[in-house]
Design brief:
Chain lengths: ~350, ~350, ~350, ~350, ~350
């Protein structure tokens, strides 16, 4: 049942509601939503956590770059107020709240809307966790929405802004949006390493000593790979859409960087495809390997049966209690029977050798 | 035989008839056709059930939005009259009546014709039921045709119009057509949840304890998934056709909404593909798992046979009734035989241990 | 050997001949070729069977629509004369005579040349028969060529012309050509029903009670489906080529009808793909099912062997004839042996229960 | 090892040489290269075998069509001189000498360069032989290069020129090039027939009586089909490249003929794809068939073992030599044992019948 | 674990660093980096090894062609200085240092950046080694970066420049870049030969005598083929991108040569695809072959068991020690039992012959 949850998020609650209706689809992943605002340019840096959405209005028209980050989506009113404040399209707000979206990109003219999947490996439950991250890129602002506080991924970006590392303070909002995307795609490489480790961990074993447990792991790996593919595959279009976009929101110098993320995404997809093909090959080889093992087992059984069944029969014959059995009375009868039995063994072995079984 | 019915609707009756001949192809799914007319704009709302097709003529040229819904297709004359009344192309009418159509979209200039499949899960027979819905979008009217009364799906839309929920009363006929499409696609998510549940229900079992019954379910799931794919796949083209259409019937604000339905459809298709791949993987793993089980069984058999066959043979030898068998007369003969037999067992076990069977 | 004939028609006779050489490639399927001419417009209708090709020359330049139908291709001279008469390209004539052509469409400017495959189910040999139909569409004439007299398919069209059913008498030669194509595609649905029936007939059985005979049928079905696919798949291009054609020979009103045939063809192709996937799934499931059955059989065998082999061995031991076997002399020896044997059985059964075999 | 040779021609000798270096890659297939020149137009016909490349220079600028055919490529100097004489690009000469090229087409402006594979079935070694044919088409000349003298294929063309059969004497150099291509593609049909025969020869057998030898043949067929595909697949692009070419070297009337060869190539490719799918299906069905057979065998074994093991055990019990075994002394003991044994058989048979094994 | 390393290079160290951060990702493959400068035109040739990056600055603006080759990437400062010196984009420098890049091509206007994979077969560890080669093509310079000193591949190029072999001294920097690419692609053919040899080495064996070891090799081959595909597949785009490029850096005469490398790359990809399909077929056939073998083994076992079990039972019956067993006392009892036993054998053999097992 767990699997369905991973493939299909229940949307039933929403069925029939008019489009643009704001309902949070997904689990509530944190207690209280948190809104952080970072406002900067080459010289200025201002960072604060705000309580009320309204507090971020003044930042809207400032020439500095403003990054509003919202952690936690279950409080629909926050999204609604933000939407009103910045005049966003209702469908956009609906998409932010529906956490089962495919990665996508939509150019609304005044702003560009991007949905991506952030992937995290949760060691405690040995599972890959996916969370939806929505990013709205405006002329001088970036608003990002996360289902929960995945602090450390975006913290690195925050840190770079704070300390003015790299070019980030010198570039516009588009570069900030790129940086967030880059941070997310960077995580994918870590996930790939995790999957690769699991993969490497069962590969040899599955081929040589297949057990139910290992088949279960292989099957789960395949499922994980399929799910990852689903999250990452549409990213190609998203990023190349941004790169080829003619929107004035994305300036040319940033496009080279987008090309770079694009290539990273392709690299991840390549790796996923290799895992997919390798899993198939692994199962195929393991099936052949099992059949081969069984063949060996059967040969041993047949060998033993074929040698001892006739012998036991012969012994059985002379174990019969007929009154008149001439052989029993013969002087060398016993020795002759042994001779016959040994001949049978030799003939059988010769036959098997001829058939290349031994 | 049931399966053929699900894949191929009998069209034989129609073979050879001139194109445009109106014959109802499909089952009769309700007693009497029912025609409902809803006429509205931002201020006006009028809803009634009509008996005669002619009654809807006056609505044709009113500036208000008119939605004519026809439930039940077996009464060909209704469709014919409607067709004459609105001056529809005969092939369009023929398509409405042929319930085995693929989802499609055709722009006739004055009106746009859309065919979709409405899917419903019928719990009583544990089956997914598909019904054809045809929608004709004109400048200020929408005419929809259903095979049977699937009330509740479109009722939600009716309710929204009645109560003026959302934007529907402020938008044109194109938005109404979109709303109907959206309602249909929303149903697909429910179907996907159903399939997902069935899937999750047998997955573990099929891999660990495969039985004929479970294989049957897996095979049926695969069939269902293939049929769903067939109904939903062409939807991509239909919706993107509408979205890219240059027809004045579809206004720009509605296109963003169409994009939204398009993305929902893609999401459903993605899920279908995952189910397809997972079913394949499931069968593959289960085959390996069965072979593996058999291997275990064979090893036990071979072990037992390999140990007891030689022993039984030895016992057989000394059960022979030859008059002259020196061993039988030996004082420690019996004990020696036991010693030999125990040695055989030890050697065999050592051999199996070496081959890693035990 | 029969299969090769169905996949590859012998063209060896033709190898090396200059292009445009008229040689009939294929079987002779009827005694004497038959040429029928129908000449009509909205008011006039004239139908006759002619003996000499030359008789159809006068029809060539009349404003009425002329349909010349040739049944039987083995008499090369007829095709040649017709070709000269209407000034057709030699390659076109060669194609008409080569009955192994793929469906194709070629626009020669003054006329359009179409090759299709007519499919018929021959109940007497339980096989699907394919025949090549070539159609040449000129400004006011249609010439059709069939390998044999498949009367009834085109007879329905003839009948419609005779009786003026539908629009056929009001439309041009392009509509007539469309009607012929439509009649051929309509046949495909009947073939699909036939295949579907065969399919449904073995599906259940193959999964539950696979036998050689059923595998043979499944394999043949797969072959049939592949062959059908080969005949029908190229049709998509043919029809969409006609639809998108800018030739003045095809008028706009006819294009909507061509779209309709196109959709029918796609529907048939969809069904073929489903059959293809279902056959694969069927074989896959049946393989799993067989392995599963074998597993059950093996478990029974192992159970029996594992219980009775030790027992038989014990009985064998006390069947030995050693002079000094203390147990034999014991008062309760026989009962003790039974006790041991029953313990063995209980232990074995417990072991099997633990492994979940019983 | 033979297979590598068929997939990869050793190019090691060439590694590191500057591009345009003329080295013959491939086997030497004939003793002495042979150069034939045919010069013709509608009225003139001149054919001779020349010793020195220089002899063909005078033909270069004549208005007549000149066909130079070179059999045997190992003498690099001939190719080099021809290249200088006609001023060909060094890479073109290199390609002619590298016999492992893919079919390709390159337009060098003044001339068009075409590489194709000629296939021949060599009955003596039961193998399909591929040879590279390069064709250079200039304004009034065609130069063709073959690895060996495959006389008869091009001889038919020569014969047509000599006798003025067909249009060949009336058309230009492009038509001659087409004719050569057509002759090569015609050979493919013969190869397909050969493969089809082999295929038909093992199909039935593989499904019903699979043996190692038959599996070997199936595997080899698959390999052959893959190799053929590799040779023929790129031809599509080559011919359609020529057809769509805007080079003045290819005149419009010839394009219809090129279309014809194109369709023949597609037909061959179609057939190859069918063989590919059929081979897969064949192996799949044969695997199921083998498993099915084994199931039957196992059932017989289990039946026999399950019936006779308990019986033998019972007999064993009463073969024991305990002093005190009350049953042995009973008057009807022997008959009772028989009764028990017969009951066991009946119970077992009933059990098997219930499980539908017999 | 080794496999993960081959599929995924650890990038974790880099995660979160701002783009353009120069960190060497990959193994350190040589002790000290080495920089070689070759400066040449048709008349001049100057070659030296330099210690400090700054030494190559004077070469930058000379009209002669300058080739700077850097072996060893772990010393980030070298790359950095070179980057500053030539004013390269920071992302380009980052890419050079990240050795897990996909082959790619980027046109930066003033220079073109190319990443390729050089493949080498290391006989000592029986593995294919891949190393990243980056090439920057400027108006009159080429800078190449290698992870280690793969001397001999580029040495051949150096030698050609030194000795003025071929056209290289007469052509520009683009031709030099092409020559390097050509040298790399030439290596692929050698790798293909190696894979082909391995492949040919196990093919026969896997089909006839499958062993675990051979399955392991097959699985590894499949993995190798997948990895090769990953390295070589993107090359198509890279080279065709260069060929279609409108950059003034690539002159027309060089494009014909690029076409040539392109075709070589396609040829390698073709071969990889054939290996992929052949490996699949090999495993498939080998699975059938194993099953077939097992079938043979099972038949022998069943034959032996079915013949000797009844015989042993009969012998067992007359080995019973009942006091009253009339048969035992019969004069011809023993001979009759033999007669019965022989009949049983004959019946069984007849049965088997009927079922075509013997």
């Amino acid at each position: 049942m767990d699997m369905i949850k991973r493939i299909i998020t229940k949307r039933s609650a929403k069925t029939g509601a008019p489009p643009g209706t704001l309902i949070h689809v997904g689990e509530r992943k944190m207690e209280n939503p948190r809104i952080t605002v970072i406002d900067y340019n080459e010289k200025i840096f201002d960072e604060k956590q705000i309580e009320e959405v309204e507090e971020c209005i003044p930042f809207k028209n400032r020439p500095t770059i403003t990054w509003v980050n919202v952690d936690g989506l279950h409080d629909v009113s926050i999204i609604e107020k933000l939407g009103k404040c910045f005049n966003f399209h209702p469908l956009l707000l609906e998409d932010i709240l529906s956490t089962e979206q495919r990665p996508k990109m939509a150019d609304f003219g005044d702003y560009i809307f991007i949905i991506m999947k952030m992937l995290r490996y949760d060691a405690s439950i040995d599972k890959i966790i996916s969370e939806q991250v929505s990013v709205i890129l405006g002329p001088s602002f970036v608003i990002s929405f996360q289902e929960a506080d995945n602090g450390d991924v975006f913290d690195l970006v925050r840190d770079r802004i704070r300390k003015g590392k790299g070019k980030i303070r010198k570039m516009g909002a588009d570069y900030l949006a790129y940086t967030l995307m880059d941070a997310i795609v960077d995580q994918y490489f870590i996930i790939m390493e995790k999957v690769g480790e699991k993969f490497g961990g069962i590969e040899e074993d599955l081929v040589y000593n297949p057990t139910k447990e290992r088949f279960r792991i292989a099957h789960e790996l395949k499922r994980d790979v399929l799910l990852l593919r689903r999250y990452i595959w549409p990213l190609r279009e998203v990023i190349s859409g941004l790169e080829r976009s003619e929107s004035p929101l994305i300036k040319n110098p940033t496009k080279i960087y987008l090309r770079d993320v694009y290539e990273h995404a392709i690299q991840v997809i390549d790796t996923i495809e290799i895992f997919r093909e390798m899993t198939a090959s692994m199962l195929e080889v393991s099936l052949s390997s099992i059949s081969n093992n069984m063949n060996e087992v059967m040969k041993v059984l047949t060998l033993i049966a074929t040698i001892f069944m006739p012998l036991t029969f012969i012994a059985g014959v002379y174990g019969m209690n007929f009154r008149y059995m001439p052989e029993l009375e013969m002087l060398w009868g016993y020795e002759m029977v042994w001779a016959i039995m040994i001949s049978v063994v030799i003939i059988m072995l010769a036959y098997f050798r001829k058939r290349k079984w031994i």
